[in-house]
Amino acid sequence: MLTQIIATSLIAAAASAFNGDANNNIAAYWGQNAGGSQQSLGEYCNSTSADIIIMSFMNGFPNLELNFANQCSSTFSDGLLHCSNIGQDIKSCQEEGKLVLLSLGGATGTYGFTSDSDAESFATTMWNKFGGGQDDERPFDDAIVDGFDFDIENQDQTGYVALANQLRQYFNGDSSKKYYLSAAPQCPYPDQSVGDLLSQAEIDFCFIQFYNNYCSVNGQFNWQTWSTYASSTSPNKDIKLYLGLPGSATSAGSGYVGLSEVQSALGSIGDDSSFGGISVWDISSAEQDGFLDGLRNLLGSPENSNTPTSSSDEEDKAVSTSAQTVSPTSSANPNPPMKTVYTTSYTTIQVAARATGLEKRAEANVLQGESSKTNAGVNCSNTTFPARTIYETVLPKLVSQYQPDVPYHPGSAWAGSGKADPTTGDLHQCNVWHGSQEKYQNWYKLRRRFVSEFGMEPSPSSKTYEQCISDPTELYPQSETVDHDNKADGFERRLALYVIENIKVQGLDFDSWIYATQLMQAECLGYAYRCWRREWRGEGKRYNGGTYVWQINDC
Questions:
Q1: What is the pLDDT of residue 529?
Q2: pLDDT for 488
Q3: Spatial separation of the C-alpha atoms in residues 14 and 95, rounded to whole Å
Q4: Is the pTM of this model over 0.70?
Q5: Could you give the 3-state DSSP secondary structure of residue 278?
Q6: Is 346 helix (H, G, I), strand (E, B) or coil?
Q7: How far apart are CA 344 and CA 26, in angstroms?
Q8: Given the residues 153, 303, 363, 453, the one annotated as active site
Q9: Domains of the chain
Q10: DSSP 175-240
Q11: Where is the composition biased (Polar residues) (predicted)?
Q12: What integer pLDDT is reported at residue 330 of this predicted model?
């Protein structure tokens, strides 16, 4: 079976991984159109820096009801909302590294349990309809939410601890992804609706509503009370507390504060180890007047890099955009002929060494080969080559965490500490055409275990030249105009060397020259293939296991 290896540049990735341990995440409620012009879930994921989107609400249970204001009206035959559009948006948001939670409760609605057993039974319904289970009626089709939020406001606490514990059992049985539970208490402590839940169940995020009460940011702000809860009462000692704010002056009855007051509050709570970020009600209002962007500026760029940054000081943060979602398998064919690896760029390392003069000193070996073994995990952000941390520490961890079945290769080419050993690693073989300009009949000497780059330049077809060179008098082999349109060094000098050594030249008219260079390229590459295929000689003598060309139309 032919194996094709795709080298994917991780640095160019757009998606990122959510970091629940960060202290600068933004969580935003969506679904109730508090701002009056609510857009789709996907639109907010694309256009805002929110890290967690909480869909509100599941406002009826155990007789299940959903309400998302102006975003869903289709139903199943029994009247339950069927929101395929939201399902697609959930998956899009998740691909961008954002969490999507489904919130239970709200200020209005008919919900609650009469017993723990009722709640445990409803946990199964939630899992099958919104989680990793199966059901004939899934409101979001095959989309799977990242967890559930408890925004209970009717002061009836029956069953919620049992519900959370049962959901945790389902979560723990699904190793394919991480799930979360959150709660949204009012700021008076303990909360009369979710106080038992917070003190008896393992909750990941607590979106504390510091509004509509005396304990708002501009009132008797009681963050320290909640901080004490996190450190001494919460069953989850890693719980993250969020400063819950209205998105605008009209989003809540009281408690709205401007960015300057938020900044002042952050100055007093930002160093709290339990601080996780800011939550807002809701995203449609917070986004309208730039309030959400202002919050992001106050918190700084998110550690999971959902917001791009151009600051060189943020280089190490931006690398987490390298978390890719490339799948090495196909549902239609469980054994596809295509294999996928992640690798980074040797060229970047080479340029860094040249720019700093390191290629002339011993440190060049550390940069290009030795560091992955002898200095693994080193932070190079303050050195002349900060990207080394990206290639050798950050990216391997990301790939191992999110796609452990896909290999990660620290660079292309890369041979580790044994870079002089032709039986290990891969090689960019540039000594034919470039470098020492070896005869291509020496390919058999220029092998390695995997040759990840080699090639030979030909001239393009005459039709290509005629499309880019309008003056026909410039169409001849030594033309400076032809040379100008070629990006490779040496051009006619190197082509002439390999053509004259290997091809009987019939003439120096342009068409004859083009044919000669293309024939020379075909012979050159074919010779390499034949040589290296013979170098897979069996156990203990597998000197070459594969190759690919850079690039067939070069240059």
A1: 92
A2: 76
A3: 9
A4: no
A5: strand
A6: helix
A7: 31
A8: 153
A9: 24-303 (3.20.20.80), 323-420 (no CATH), 439-533 (no CATH)
A10: TTS--EEEE--BSSSS-TTTHHHHHHS--SEEEEE-SSSTTSTTSS--HHHHHHHHHHT-S-TT-E
A11: 319-333
A12: 36
